[in-house]
Amino acid sequence: MKNNLLKLSALFCTVGITISACTSGDRTTNTTDSVMADSSVVVALKPAGPAPEWGKTIKTEMQTVIEKLTSYGDKPIETLNPTDARKNHTPTDAVMDLVKENNITIPQPQVDTTGRDIDVSGGKIHLRIYTPKAGNGPFPLIVYYHGGGFVIANLDVYNASAQGLAEQVGAVVISVAYRLAPEHKFPTAHNDAFTAYEWVVKNAASLKGDPAKIAVVGESAGGNLAANVSITARDKKIMIPVHEVLVYPITQANMNTESYKLYAQAKPLNKAMMGWFTEKYLTTMIESQNPKISLVNANLKGLPPTTIITAEIDPLHDDGTMFANKLSDAGVKVNSRNYEGVTHEFFGMALVVPEAKAAQAYAAAQLKEAFK
Fold first, then answer.
1. Catalytic site residue 314?
2. I want to staple 281 with a disulfide (CB 3.0 to 4.6 A). Which of 76, 150, 158, 328 is the partner?
3. Looking at residue 294, which CATH number applies to its domain?
């Protein structure tokens, strides 16, 4: 796995245009964003070929990233063993190569990073801590969980998301390298995720953080972990996060939803990969109905206000919308926003994809409001 690191601007995005919205008290706010290019930050990228059959609505910048990712010629992840799958190029590699090829300037980081190993049941895990360079704190804290289907990816692959949030929110972000399957089966990642959150709660002051202002954020599998952290904190009666941001989270095990059907062949995530991830993380398929995996079946009452971000061209699109509705039905305040013309994994691509810049700014604004 290449260790390219994305360095993101701390500037807020001003390119989001709301084209539909529905608000009702504390119930779900569903918004779809159509985004115009912002030439001051994002260089317009042009794809080489026509839009793919699986994504006719794909935006040009997003398509260019997918074309670059496809150009590496890697074998499909679902045909590989986990060790080889982790060697495949990632969407981050594609973005960084496009940055080089197009002479895109990478802003200087506005955070310092340090590492910390902490004890978990049966071993240790690593945390990467992003601390704002400006100010002395105490800063709000964000515990961040990366994606990868519980099997692949690492802190470097998702650096752009964690760093971007730290810079835009002005928060200390703790990115968690939970243990991966199949070496560590369910519920290891879930247990590691909560142990990391509990460690942050107990050690907030030493991180220059405000212990009363802790949020959780996760992407894909990490979105599932972040939601589970809130549930476990509620059940164990320790401080629950003040907010959670779930970016195209895994929230259920039914792979026959409309978005799974529409985008079964999508890139960089397809239906076959989701089946592969599930088989690698779970010991038996019966576990797929566990409320930790199928969050739509969990007790969701008393959870913190939640922001859900989805991508249009994504098998997991409906997971996000279903969970937003379930949370709202349980009395949880939910805001959700869908981004058109982009795929799974778009959130960390703010250097080249305008919708990613808009989504990060939206998430940052939601977190800043929660931290007030």
1. yes
2. 150
3. 3.40.50.1820
